[in-house]
Amino acid sequence: MVKRRVHVAAAAIISRDSRRVLIARRPSNVDQGGLWEFPGGKLAPYETGFEALKRELHEELGVEIQRAQPLIRVHHEYPDKHILLDVWQILAFAGEPFGREGQAVRWVAMDELHSYPFPAANLPILRAVMLPTEYLISDEEEDDEVFLTKLGRALREDGIRLVQLRAKNLEPDAYLVRAEKALGLCREYDARLLLNGEPELLQSIDADGVHLTSERLMSLERRPLAESKWLSASTHDRVQLDQAARIGCDFVTLSPLRTTPSHPEVDPLGWHDFQQLVETAAMPVFALGGMTRHDANHARAVGAQGIASIRDFWK
Ligand SMILES: Nc1nc2c([nH]c(=O)n2[C@H]2C[C@H](O)[C@@H](COP(=O)(O)OP(=O)(O)OP(=O)(O)O)O2)c(=O)[nH]1
Ligand SMILES: [Mg+2]
Known about the structure:
2 domains, eight-stranded parallel β-barrel, NUDIX_hydrolase-like_dom_sf, 8-oxo-dGDP phosphatase activity, DNA repair
C-alpha cells in the first residue's frame, strides 16, 4: 500500500511569559478524535504552510495571524499515512481565540502539558514549545565566583533560560560544588540547568537534566534518565541523530555549523547540510559552532529550535 502523504500546518500560540500554550481538543468523530492538538489543518492545493495556517486559525479559533515563525517540522508515520506537521510559533495575532467549531480550547501551563493526551506525532512539538531559542553552554572557568558573575549576567541581561554546565577542567567534587551554586542561580531566574556529564550526577544534584557527549550517546542502549528530566546530547551527523532519537533524547545540538577556533580541524556543516539533517531529526535541534544570537532567526528558518553558544553569551 502506498501511504497518503498529508501536510498539516499547526500553531503553537505561547503566552508572552512563555508559561502557557493554547491547545484544542479534536472532535471525537475525526481522525485522532478526542486527543488534544495544536490548532491547524491540512494544506489546500497550492497553499503554502503559512497561508494554510492563517486560514485554519481563522476557521478554527476566529483569530487573525499577523506574524509567525517556524518552530519545528515533524515527519511521522501513522499506519495509514505519512504526515508532515509544519508547526509555527505565533508571534502576533488579533482577536480572542475560541472554539469556533465547538471544540474545547484551553490555555495550559507548560508543566501541565504532559497530562493531556496528544497524537503520537506530537512528542517533538511538546518538547519544542517548552524550549527557548537560545541554549547557553558555559565556558571553562577556574574560579567559581567569576563563573557565577558571568552566568548571572547572561541570565539577567541576555534572558537566557537554558544552561548547560560544561566544566571539563574541574574534578568531580569541584564540579558538584559549582553545579549546586549554578542551580541556585538558575532557579532565581526560572532557568533550566543541564549537567554535562554522567546521568548519575542527578543523584547528587537535582538539576533539570543531563547533556551527553556524542561518545557517551553512542554507548547507550536506552534512555538513562526519567521522563521528568531533560536529556540532551551533542551530535555531528545522521548516525548520531538517529541514535539520539532511538534512546529518546529530548533535544540535541548539531555541530559544527561554522569553523570555530576551538575545533579548527573539523569541517563545518554549513546551513545547507545542517538543514537537510534537521529536516528528518525527530527532536528539536540547536545549531552549534560559531553561532551568535543574530543567527537565531536563520536557524529557525531552516528548521532548528535555535542556537547554542558559548562565546556569544559568556562574557
Ligand atoms: N491540527 C493538528 N493535526 C494533528 C496534530 N497532530 C497530529 O497527528 N495531527 C494529525 C491529525 C490529522 O490526521 C491531521 C490534521 O488534519 P485535520 O483533521 O486537523 O485537518 P483539517 O483541519 O484540514 O480538517 P478537515 O478539513 O480535513 O476536516 O494531522 C496536531 O497537533 N494538530
Ligand atoms: Mg484541524
